[in-house]
Design brief:
Layout lengths: L4 E2 L14 E4 L4 E3 L40 E9 L5 E7 L3 E7 L4 E2 L2 H16 L3 E2 L2 E2 H10 L2 H7 L14 H5 L2 E10 L2 E6 L12 E2 L2 H4 L2 H4 L1 E3 L5 E2 L14 E7 L2 E9 L6 H16 L13 E7 L2 E8 L3 E4 L2 H5 L3 H20 L12 E4 L4 E3 L19 H14 L2
Parallel strand pairs: 1-2, 6-10, 7-10, 13-17
Antiparallel strand pairs: 2-4, 3-4, 4-5, 5-6, 8-9, 10-11, 12-18, 14-15, 15-16, 16-18, 17-18, 19-20, 20-21
Length: 409
């Protein structure tokens, strides 16, 4: 999509009905009980908040008792090159989501708030982390506070998620949600809940055809999202941060720890099919486990009927991905070890007629024991690593491998 820039490369960009998306931040912009802000009374769902701006460009003081607020953050945001709207998804740690749209066309006689909004918009559009000592976190915090009254009213802290059991993927992917808008008049904010349930963001699942599903259960386990437990290290992250580390039933009263790689967003059915078919080849080829081959292993898929939410890979405790900086800081013996592991693993794939595809240093994980693992069989390619005309071929894999080995010299 023209003019699009993604900040965190771990996830694909979100499709949206409007054209010319610029940015999506899979952010961690926190508000709530950990932050200091003014308190008072909440007037209600579609009522004005008290206080006007004078010389302070911050949003008017939210009239909210602190005890009513859960922890909440801007989980995603997106802005556009040509349009002046800003879209946010605010998530709370008690399982609510707020799909919010801010449009300056609904700002009336409010020059100070309008000026501050465009200051935020310009920074987010730029893709920079900071401009004139104004940071991305400052922009997200300011935008987040605009909807604070609705968060307090519709997702009060009394609606806590059970601390007895772990949250599930169902709770994250299919939260109780509200579609919200904002009106501003005379420097007074009026956030409100819309009547529509159409939030305009993409579905958390993709629909695949029978040619993908027909034998899926023969080579991969299927899990309902309600049976996948999410592991969070910090209570304030629950149902806010995107799930990565999860637990699933492995039989014999045991659990398997997995990495959840989500479909959906701009990851369409064609890409899902391509990666699943490659992973099927890996399973059917019976490529040996470490130390003979260091290749990520699919444990199962998350699905409801013909709707797929994502893939579950056997968890790898990692230090991070391979990079030139990591290679430069590593010993010659360790670099030699990684060269051997990567080359040998790719050779075993090729021997079975399997193409890696997106060959690059970022698709090599370094685990906690300093082993190098090949990951990502999505079939795309990255400019600068593999030429477009060689993508998805043995020649493309060889080209990318040569550049990885060059880093490890």
């Amino acid at each position: 999509m023209s003019g699009f820039h993604r900040i965190f490369s771990g996830w694909n960009s979100t499709q949206h009905s409007r054209a010319a998306l610029v940015n999506i931040c899979w952010g961690a912009r926190s508000r709530g009980l950990r932050r200091n802000f003014k308190v008072g009374f909440l007037h209600g769902l579609r009522t004005q908040t008290d206080s006007c701006l004078h010389s302070d460009p911050s949003p008017p003081a939210t009239i909210v008792g602190m005890e009513t607020l859960p922890h909440y953050e801007v989980a995603f945001w997106q802005v556009h090159e040509t349009e002046e709207d800003c879209d946010l998804i605010i998530r709370t740690n008690n399982g609510r989501a707020f799909y919010c749209t801010i449009s300056p066309s609904r700002f009336c006689r409010s020059p100070k708030l309008t000026e501050q909004y465009f200051k935020c918009l310009d920074l987010l559009r730029s893709g920079e982390q900071e401009k004139d000592d104004f940071y991305e976190e400052d922009a997200c915090d300011w935008l987040l506070k605009l909807f604070e009254p609705l968060v307090a009213q519709l997702a009060p802290s009394s609606l806590a998620v059970s601390e007895i059991s772990r949250p599930t993927l169902s709770q994250y992917l299919f939260p109780l949600y509200f579609v919200c808008g904002l009106e501003v008049a005379n420097e007074v904010l009026r956030p409100y809940q819309m009547e529509t349930q159409n939030h305009g963001w993409s579905s958390p699942s993709i629909v695949v055809k029978n040619d993908v599903l027909i034998d899926l259960d023969q080579w991969a386990k299927s899990y309902h999202p309600s049976d996948v437990e999410i592991i969070y290290n910090h209570p304030e992250d629950i149902l806010i941060k995107r799930p990565t580390k999860v637990l699933v039933d492995a039989g014999n009263n045991s659990k398997a720890t997995c990495y959840f790689k989500r479909f959906g967003l701009s990851f369409g059915p064609a890409y899902a099919k391509k990666e699943l078919m490659t992973l099927k080849k890996v399973v059917m080829a019976q490529i040996p486990s470490p130390p003979e081959a260091w290749i990520c292993r699919l444990h199962g898929v998350v699905r409801v009927g013909d709707k797929l939410m994502g893939m579950l890979f056997i968890w790898i405790d990692t230090k991070g991905v391979l990079s030139k900086a990591r290679a430069d800081q590593s010993s010659a013996d360790l670099r030699k070890r990684w060269k051997t592991q990567i080359s040998t693993s790719l050779e075993k794939l090729h021997h079975k007629g399997i193409i890696w595809g997106d060959v690059k240093a970022e698709n090599v994980l370094i685990d906690s024991d300093d082993n190098a693992w090949i990951i990502d069989f999505g079939g795309s390619y990255t400019h600068g690593w593999v030429d477009k005309e060689k993508a998805g071929t043995l020649a493309g894999d060889a080209q990318g491998l040569a550049k990885i080995l060059d880093i490890l010299q």
